[in-house]
Design brief:
The complex is a heterodimer of chains A (73) and B (692).
Chain A (H helix, E strand, L loop, with lengths): L10 E7 L5 H8 L7 E7 L5 E6 L2 E6 H4 L2 E3 L1
Antiparallel strand pairs in A: 1-2, 1-5, 2-3, 3-4
Chain B lengths: L6 E2 L5 H4 L5 H4 L1 E7 L5 H9 L16 E7 L2 E7 L11 H12 L4 E7 L3 H13 L3 E7 L7 E3 L1 H8 L2 E5 L7 H9 L11 H9 L7 H22 E3 L10 H4 L5 H47 L3 H18 L2 H17 L1 H15 L6 H8 L3 H7 L6 H10 L9 H12 L3 H25 L10 E3 L8 H35 L7 H4 L4 H13 L7 H9 L5 H11 L5 H7 L6 H4 L3 H13 L4 H44 L1 H29 L15
Parallel strand pairs in B: 2-4, 2-5, 5-6, 6-8
Antiparallel strand pairs in B: 1-3, 3-4, 7-9
The chains are: A alpha+beta (73), B alpha/beta (692).
Chain lengths: 73, 692
Amino acid sequence: MTLDKCNQKQTYIICGFLGECDSVMRRFFELGLTVGEKVKIVATSLQKKVFLLEIRGYLLSVRASLLAKVVVK
Amino acid sequence: MKLKKTRPLGKKNFFEENKQTSPKDLGKEVLLVGNPNSGKTTLFNALTASNEHVGNWHGVTVDTVGKGFSFQGEDYFLVDTPGIYSLCPLSYEEKVAVDKIEGSSTCKIINICDQNNLQRNLYLTLCLLERGLDVVLAVNEIDKKPIFKVDCKKLGERLGINVVRINAEKKIGLDDLKSCLKEEKRQKKDLPYLKQLKLVEAEKNFQAQPNSVQQISQLRYAFIDEILKDCAVRTKDVYGKSKLDKIFLNKWLAFPIFICILAAIFQLTFFSLGSLLSDALGQILSFFTTPILNFIRSSLGEGFVYSLFADAIFGGVGTVLSFLPQVVLLFFFLSILEDSGYMSRIAFIFEDILGRIGLSGKSVYTLLMGFGCSTTAIMTSRNMEDKNAKIKTAILCPYMSCSAKIPIYTVVGGAFFGAKNIFVIMGLYALGVIVAILVSKILDMTLLKSKAQSFILEFPPYRKTSLKRVGKILWKNVKEFLLRVGSVMISMNIIIWLLSSFSFSFQYVPSSGGVSALESFGRILAPIFSPLGFGSWAVVASLLAGLVAKEVVVSSIAMFNGIDQNAIKLLSASLLLPGSVVFFSSRAAVVAFLVFCLLYTPCIASISMLLQEVGKKWTIISIFIQFGSAYILAFLTYQILFAAEIFGFFSVFAAIFSIFAIIFAIFYILRRIKKKKLCPHCEQCNKKCKNS
């Protein structure tokens, strides 16, 4: 399952990434979204196009379309 | 401490402009780098006694700024850079910072880390150390109860660099930090994961492989976790998380709350508190200028000199100066919003809506700043990664009614609409936003199609506003406003006064009775504006003067009316300007004029900033779009309101409604016909589809 399909208030573990390593994926890695890391969906926008994530002890808002590259369980 | 003048670097690089002067001449160069919102500019201001713009959100600094300072007999030149997460830039501002770091590989680097978010901040530190750069780590203790309690000495030993605990806001630990700048570079300590990192980097095409690139990040984070376990104690708090977000980010409450906050700011700025202060300042100004004018009148008569002072200097500038309280209040509230941490929440809640018109949630910063000053707002569009979204945001900035337009709405609108002017002003602000949305949508569908947006934004914690910091921001803006009023406005007013008082043959028009140079020029252009209801030469001349600075529009009108220092009284008197009846044939013309002022080409400063940010092509396009939209909408406003004055509001409303209904019906029928022609299998392609 990809992160953009996940439910609010739930915690998931990142288990992989889809597609080529572009600048956005690189930014994900720099911000701490790496395999094995826990990620919690704190909130979503009204139309679920933006997600607010809790990762490595801080909050990060990311567009849902970008999270379609992140595989979680 | 000896201080030197602040110099903005970046595109208009100081060193490029003054090749004789290099950083070496100004002192030992020191770079200030760190994650966004870690307190770089606060530290820069503390070290160099500057007053650079700071705020509690991502991307306040968009260009490098340099200033010198001395410590124990040695000169340093400190360069503040935009925030970065690593040495791989994603946006323009990040590229500016990384280029600066790569171009200054031998100088000292102060890497500032936010103690509350140390884990993520140390990632950049490792990137810098891997390059062998000479780094001093400044751990910025922003809050009293930080998430990480760090043993700086131990951390320094593990990283092989000097680590200093500071509080940039309270200027604590700055001398220790400065002492570290004097020290020679320590011998490079090999980071334990470097061998593994080099092995990964040696792999073929490693940069295209997510696993390989991710492995590098994992190696760095693993090392960070290891050293933090050894050198720091962590609380269970999450950086940026607050119970307030349950209200501010609530799906159903977020927008009403935002609208209430904006409405409260507008009410306080333009009406209750703002108008009270404006009236008071107007009376103070009148108190000082009236005796001077009376003295000139009694000694020299109502001639040339009296007219110069009454119309050009006191009349025009005095009118604008009395709006200073409103400008101050607007910047005050914007500063509180910036400092509170609410800006990032606004970007989050607006991403859905702005994404639909091809903008980014980050555009909210820029567009909100546009209510203060378009010039500075356009500059903040740099922090957007998507080039098309950036251009669109920069072009849309002038549609957000800037503070310089407040005098136009208040004086002209107030004179004709009295107490009902509040609705006119609110309508104008709303119209600016609506036109911006429409223009953005049209650009998104035609010239600037948006790509997949890369909206990634960190949430800062909510913080109490520092009144000292807000005071500094206010002082800076007020100083700029007063300097502009003092220099540009007075000189412009004198030029306009000269042009309106003298003919081309240099004869003083009031005594000789000829036609002034400005009137001759205005009469040539006036017919263009006749369909908009204000085809008077004086109004056209005011609009032309407004290209220099929007404040000049109202001071010019005041001057052409010959209402001298009494213009100030107009603010509260809400009486009809006697001369304005000649300029504006009806109330419909006044509204059309205000609409035109809201939307037409911004001032020269904004145009030059647009030129710098989006290039020549898009600046020219934007000028055409702004003038075109202003002309069309002012024309429609005048024609509709004028018709309403003659035929009644409901007849005109019915006519407009019918026209829209017909247009909608035509579009609907055309869409149905087009849909029928589409492939029945997928309803997206034409009949050449393989499925059919």
